[in-house]
Specification:
The protein is α/β, with parallel strands linked by helices. It has helices at residues 3-9, 17-23, 47-62, 83-93, 120-132, 143-155, 174-182, 229-239, 255-265, 299-305, 309-320, 324-330, 355-368, 371-384, 394-402, 405-413, 428-435, 455-469, 478-488, 495-500, 509-520, 529-536, 538-549, and strands spanning 34-37, 66-69, 100-103, 106-108, 136-139, 188-191, 199-203, 207-211, 219-221, 244-248, 271-275, 278-282, 285-288, 351-352, 491-492, 507-508. Strands 1-2-3-4 form a 4-stranded mixed sheet. The protein binds glutamic acid (GLU).
Length: 550
C-alpha cells in the first residue's frame, strides 16, 4: 500500500527497517536489564534529571545490567550549544556514569548513534514501513486550521487533537496526496490510529495499568522530517533493546500512543516505570517544583553551594526508596551502593522535596565522612565554584585554595570528635564560613564583651594570659590558666556558684574564656578554644591577643 507515496516522501531512505533489526541485534543474556537516560539538551539540568538518572542507574547496576545515555535532540529549536557535555559533566559529578551511549568523547557501544539527531535515517525507514502498512499518512492541515479545530473542540467540550472526523487527510486518496506533495504543500506524517489497542500493562512502579486505546492521529514525523518524542523513543527503545523505560509521570497520559506504536510494529514494549513528580510543600499546599520559583531545582545549585555528592545521593535515595532510611540506620558505615534498591518501594504519589531534610541528611553524612574527604571536597569546590559565592569572602576562598591539606583537615576536625560531635555543617559554603576565622582574611571581631566583663578586666585577663602562656607551645593547661586568672579578678570558677551568689563575683569563668574567644575567634560562641589555639599556633594566638588589646 502507498508505494507511490513512499517513493516520494522517503526517497532518501536507503535501508529497510528489517536491516536495522539485524544491525542492532538483541543483546545477550548478560544484559537482562537495560535502562537509559534520554535527556533533551536544553541547557537546564534539574534535580528531576538526577532523580530519574539515579533510579535508572541503580536498577541497571544492581542487576549487572547496562545503563546508557541517549541524547534526545530532535527539537532543533530547543538546542543549546554544549548542552550534551554539560549533562555528562553534571551527572558525572554525582558519580552517575554510563556503560554506553553518548559520551564526551563520542559514542560508545554497539547501538550507536546515541544522539537522536543522527538517527534520522532510522526513524524515516520505520515511518516508511508504517506508511506502507496503511498505518500512517501525510497530513496537510495548516497551523491555523489546527487552531480552528481546537477551538471548535473546546467549544463542544470534546478532546482536543486530530482524530476521527477531525482527521481530514486520514482517508485522502494516494494520488491526491502525491499531487499535494508535488505541488509543494507542507505536511507532517501522522499515525493512522486504529483506536483499538487498549493498555493493559504492569507498570514497574505503579503496578497494573489499564487505559483506553489511543485514538489520536498523532504526528510521528514533523515537517522537517524529524520524529516526535512518541515515535523516536519507541524506535530507539526497541532497537537499543531497552528493558525498562523509567520516566516521569507526565508521560503517563500518552502511554496509549506508545503502546499502539509498539503493537503496530509487532514489538514487545519495554517495562514502563512512571516515577512520581517532585513536589514541594508551600503554605501547606503541595505543588510541582518550578524553574522560576525554586533555585534548588537546578542541579547547578548544589554544585555552587558545595553540597557533597555523597550527601545529595543519600538524600535522593531517601526520596526514591522508602526503606532506605531504615537501612541506613542499621548500616551507618555501609556504601550506599550496597543498599538493595528495588522498584517495589517507590513512591507512586509525588515525591516530596524538602531542602531542610536534604540539609539534615547532609549534616549526618558529613559527620560520617573523614576529614580528609571533606578537605578534598572543600578544596575542589573552592577552586571551581568558591569565588562565585556571595557569603564567603573571595580572600578566604583563596586562602582555602592555598592552605595545606593537613592543616585544613585539622580546622575541619574541630568539634567533630568526642561524645557529642558537631553536626551543623551541610555544604562547602557553610564550611568555608565556619573556618573563615582561622585566616586573617576572614577574621573579624563580631561580638561584644560579655556585660559581666568591664573593658579594664578584659585587658587584664588577656595580658595575664599572655604572661602565663609564655614558653608553652601547645594549648595544654590553657583552661587552668584561665581559672587562675578568673580567681584573681573575682570571677567564680563555676557558673553555678556565680548564680547562687551573684553579689560575691563579677561573673564566672565562662565569661573570662569568652574574652579569649573574642580575641581569637571574634565571636562569643565557638568550638573548643584549646583545639583552635593548637591550629592557630602560638604566634598567631599571641598576635590576635595583642591586636585585640591594641
Ligand atoms: N526526552 C524526554 C524528556 O526529557 C525523555 C523522556 C523519557 O525518558 O522517555 O522528558
Amino acid at each position: 500500500m502507498n508505494e507511490l507515496l513512499k517513493k516520494i516522501i522517503f526517497s532518501d531512505v536507503k535501508k529497510q527497517a528489517a536491516e536495522y533489526e539485524e544491525l542492532y541485534a538483541a543483546r545477550g543474556e548478560s544484559a537482562k536489564v537495560v535502562t537509559r537516560l534520554g535527556p533533551s539538551p536544553t541547557g537546564f539540568i534539574h534535580f528531576g534529571n538526577l532523580y530519574g538518572a539515579y533510579i535508572n542507574e541503580r536498577l541497571a547496576h544492581r542487576n549487572d545490567g547496562i545503563f546508557y545515555l541517549r541524547i534526545e535532540d530532535t527539537d532543533s529549536k530547543r538546542q543549546v550549544e554544549g548542552a550534551k557535555e554539560e549533562i555528562i559533566k553534571a551527572l558525572d559529578h554525582f558519580d552517575i556514569t554510563f556503560d554506553e551511549g553518548a559520551m564526551a568523547t563520542g559514542d560508545l557501544g554497539n547501538y550507536a548513534p546515541y544522539e537522536q539527531s543522527k538517527r534520522r535515517d532510522i526513524y524515516r525507514s520505520f515511518a516508511a514501513e508504517l506508511l506502507t502498512k496503511g498505518l500512517a499518512y501525510p497530513c496537510f492541515l495548516t497551523e491555523d486550521e489546527i487552531a480552528d479545530i481546537r477551538k471548535k473542540q473546546e467549544e463542544n467540550k470534546q478532546n482536543t487533537g486530530i482524530y476521527g472526523e477531525y482527521a481530514l487527510y486520514r482517508n485522502l486518496k494516494e494520488e491526491e496526496a502525491v499531487k499535494k506533495i508535488e505541488d509543494g504543500c507542507e505536511y507532517v506524517l501522522r499515525l493512522k490510529s486504529t483506536a483499538d489497542i487498549k493498555v493493559d500493562i504492569e507498570d514497574g512502579i505503579r503496578g497494573k495499568l489499564s487505559m483506553p486505546a489511543n485514538d489520536m492521529d498523532v504526528v510521528i514525523l514533523k515537517k522537517d522530517g524529524m520524529p516526535t518524542y512518541h515515535f523516536a523513543h519507541v524506535i530507539d527503545d526497541h532497537l537499543m533493546r531497552t528493558t525498562h523505560v523509567i520516566r516521569g509521570e507526565e508521560w503517563l497520559s500518552t502511554l496509549p500512543i506508545h503502546i499502539e506504536l509498539f503493537a503496530h510494529f509487532g514489538w514487545e514494549p519495554p517495562i514502563y516505570c512512571h516515577t512520581a513528580q517532585l513536589m514541594k510543600i508551600e503554605d501547606g499546599k503541595k505543588r510541582k517544583l518550578s524553574k522560576r520559583k525554586d533555585p534548588e531545582l537546578a542541579l547547578s545549585f548544589y554544585r555552587e553551594k558545595g553540597y557533597f555528592k555523597e550527601a545529595v545521593m543519600e538524600y535522593l535515595m531517601t526520596l526514591i526508596n522508602s526503606s532506605f532510611e531504615e537501612w541506613r540506620c542499621e548500616n551507618p558505615g555501609e556504601d550506599i551502593n550496597s543498599f538493595e534498591f528495588s522498584l517495589d518501594n517507590m513512591s507512586k504519589s509525588g515525591a516530596l522535596f524538602d531542602i531542610v531534610k536534604l540539609n539534615d541528611v547532609s549534616k549526618e553524612c558529613l559527620a560520617r565522612m573523614s576529614e580528609k574527604s571533606i578537605t578534598r571536597g572543600l578544596k575542589s569546590w573552592a577552586n571551581e565554584y568558591g569565588i562565585k559565592q556571595q557569603g564567603v569572602k573571595k580572600a578566604v576562598i583563596d586562602a582555602i585554595i592555598h592552605e595545606d591539606e593537613d592543616r585544613l583537615a585539622k580546622m575541619l576536625s574541630v568539634g567533630r570528635n568526642g561524645n557529642n560531635p558537631r553536626k551543623d555543617l551541610a555544604y562547602c559554603e557553610q564550611i568555608a564560613e565556619f573556618i573563615a576565622f582561622f585566616f586573617d582574611e576572614g577574621f573579624a571581631v563580631e561580638d561584644e564583651l560579655p556585660a559581666e566583663v568591664p573593658e579594664e578586666d578584659a585587658v587584664n585577663i588577656l595580658n595575664d594570659y599572655l604572661q602565663k602562656r609564655r614558653g608553652k607551645n601547645t594549648s595544654e593547661g590553657w583552661f587552668s590558666d584561665i581559672k587562675d586568672i578568673s580567681e584573681r579578678y573575682g570571677y567564680a570558677l563555676k557558673p553555678k556558684e556565680y548564680k547562687k551568689n551573684p553579689d560575691m563575683y563579677r561573673g564566672h569563668v565562662g565569661h573570662v574564656s569568652t574574652v579569649l574567644r573574642l580575641a581569637l575567634v571574634g565571636r562569643s560562641n565557638s568550638p573548643d578554644i584549646g583545639e583552635i589555639q593548637d591550629i592557630l599556633g602560638k604566634e598567631k594566638v599571641e598576635e590576635r591577643i595583642r591586636e585585640y588589646l591594641s
